[in-house]
Design a protein that fits this description.
The protein is an alpha/beta fold. It has one domain: NAD(P)-binding Rossmann-like Domain (Rossmann fold), CATH 3.40.50.720. Helices cover about 40% and strands about 20% of the residues. It has an 8-stranded mixed beta sheet with strand order 3-2-1-4-5-6-7-8, sandwiched between helices. Helix 6 links the parallel strand 6 and strand 7. Bound molecules: NADP nicotinamide-adenine-dinucleotide phosphate. NADP nicotinamide-adenine-dinucleotide phosphate binds next to helix 1. The site of NADP nicotinamide-adenine-dinucleotide phosphate (NAP) has 30 residues, from helix 1.
């Protein structure tokens, strides 16, 4: 049984991931912004966090440390897309997006690293929208703040992978275009399908510092 820490388990991919890990017999510590989840299990502990608030991050980290468990898998799943209807950078949206998707996620990760086990796996939910290689192919300028946040998160994956070399594996992944509040109803993938691929990646021994989609390396 592994101990898995997943951010943003209230809905979407994070909720499906939680259900998958519980079904496979693991213990899950999940976060949500209101401290609640409608999943009921003795193997699930929910902790409150708002990644845009540094005090909330510290309180959440302290609560997790108090559980006295070594974490085997950390999935930084929580994220926001606030500039959906913008094709130019709106600075207020950029700040909001970076606070959660980048600064909050990094702050949380840096504070929680000390309770990760040797051989642990950290997975960061990036996106094909943050791939520099993809922008050369598709010439798409929608939601720039979100793209910028995910490209920067990928650089965190790379630098952290080097920093933690031979101790902890660090990966970025694209979850697919998934039917959630963020992905919308036209998305082709279900949350269960996406969670299945992320689960397989999380429990696998993979090369550190890589960007994954459906078990294959993706171009940065
Ligand atoms: N869906 C897609 O097609 C797609 C594609 C590429 C990448 N992704 C990435 O995959 C991840 C999950 O996406 P999703 O579609 O499942 O998103 P979602 O349905 O919108 O769910 C987002 C999750 O993040 C949490 N969250 C939002 N703001 C937060 C904050 N300030 N502090 C802490 N948690 C916060 C939410 O918690 P509350 O319910 O408490 O607000 C919720 O659990 C995200 O990082 C997203 O960027 C998704």
């Amino acid at each position: 049984m592994k101990t898995v820490l997943i951010t943003g388990v209230s809905r979407g991919i994070g909720k499906a991931l939680t259900e998958k890990f519980l079904k496979e017999g693991h213990y899950v510590i999940g976060t949500s912004t209101d401290g609640n989840s409608d999943i009921k299990s003795d193997n699930l502990k929910i902790v409150k966090i708002d990644l845009s608030n540094s005090e909330s991050i510290t309180e959440c980290v302290n609560e997790i440390k108090f559980l006295n468990k070594k974490i085997d898998i950390l999935i930084n799943n929580a994220g926001i897309l606030v500039d959906r209807n913008f094709n130019t950078v709106n600075i207020e949206n950029l700040r909001k997006t970076l606070e959660v998707n980048l600064i909050g996620t990094i702050t949380f990760t840096e504070q929680i690293i000390s309770v990760l086990s040797i051989g642990a796996h950290i997975l960061n939910a990036a996106s094909s929208a943050g791939s520099l290689a993809k922008t050369q192919e598709i010439d798409d300028d929608e939601y720039p703040s979100y793209r910028i946040s995910k490209t920067a998160l990928n650089m965190y994956t790379r630098t952290l992978a080097i920093h933690l070399k031979d101790k902890i594996t660090v990966s970025s992944y694209h979850p697919g275009w998934v039917k959630t509040d963020m992905g919308g109803s036209d998305a082709p993938m279900t949350t269960e399908e996406s969670a299945g691929y992320i689960y397989d990646l999380a429990i696998s021994k993979v090369e550190t510092g890589q960007f994954w989609f459906k078990g294959e390396k993706m171009a940065w």
